[in-house]
């Protein structure tokens, strides 16, 4: 069965559904890596700039969208910049289990669905609940790689269902280089 579009899960409705002790058949998180690039602490000291992808609206982001955004940014950076020249981190984790009331899609199915208005649904996927201003991705890098970092995060943002903005600043926290 195909995945429903992002508009079905973008808004936050109800409390989070995260207690895996009580959820039978909850899907696993399909994101293999949250830290990429040069992850050694000694090499990270040489990176003087930080770029952050920040969410502009409150909502939910499915695990599939997070993984697509991560792959877009990571593949672009590894080709254009090289894995030794940046540190990339996905900051959010999809804890919330999404439920789906599976509907029948055949002739006459509308009569069968009348009594299922308040159906609880079965686990169908995972999502990360994010608030406005929350950081989704962080990249530490050297200033000469700034155009490639901006392009990588622009490509990643195109895979996400919520509006985002890019913040670039020096690593020590000064706001002079913000864009």
Automatic annotation (TrEMBL):
GO CC annotation, single: ribonucleoprotein complex
Secretion signal, residue range per the UniProt entry: none
Keyword terms, alphabetized: Ribonucleoprotein, Ribosomal protein
GO biological process: translation
InterPro entries attached to this UniProt entry: Ribosomal_uL16, Ribosomal_uL16_arc, Ribosomal_uL16_dom, Ribosomal_uL16_euk_arch, Ribosomal_uL16_sf
Gene3D superfamilies per the UniProt record, alphabetical: Ribosomal protein L10e/L16
GO molecular function: structural constituent of ribosome
Pfam families: Ribosomal_L16 (PF00252)
PANTHER family per the UniProt record, alphabetical: 60S RIBOSOMAL PROTEIN L10 (PTHR11726)
Family: Belongs to the universal ribosomal protein uL16 family.
Designated name of the protein: Large ribosomal subunit protein uL16
UniProt organism field: Thermoproteus uzoniensis (strain 768-20)
């Amino acid at each position: 069965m195909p995945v429903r579009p992002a508009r079905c899960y973008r808004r936050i409705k109800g409390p989070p559904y995260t207690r895996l002790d009580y959820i039978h058949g909850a899907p696993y998180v399909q994101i293999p890596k949250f830290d990429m690039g040069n992850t050694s602490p000694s090499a990270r000291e040489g990176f003087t700039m930080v770029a952050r992808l920040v969410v502009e609206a409150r909502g939910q982001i499915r695990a599939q969208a997070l993984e697509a955004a991560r792959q877009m940014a990571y593949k672009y950076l590894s080709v254009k910049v090289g894995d030794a020249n940046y540190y990339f981190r996905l900051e959010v984790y999809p804890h919330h289990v999404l439920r789906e009331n599976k509907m029948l899609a055949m002739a006459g199915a509308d009569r069968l669905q009348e009594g299922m208005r308040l159906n609880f649904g079965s686990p169908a996927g995972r999502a990360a609940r994010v608030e406005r201003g929350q950081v989704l991705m962080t990249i530490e890098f050297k200033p000469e790689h700034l155009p490639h970092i901006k392009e990588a995060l622009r490509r990643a943002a195109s895979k996400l269902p919520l509006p985002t903005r890019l913040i670039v600043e020096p690593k020590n926290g000064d706001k002079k280089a913000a864009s």
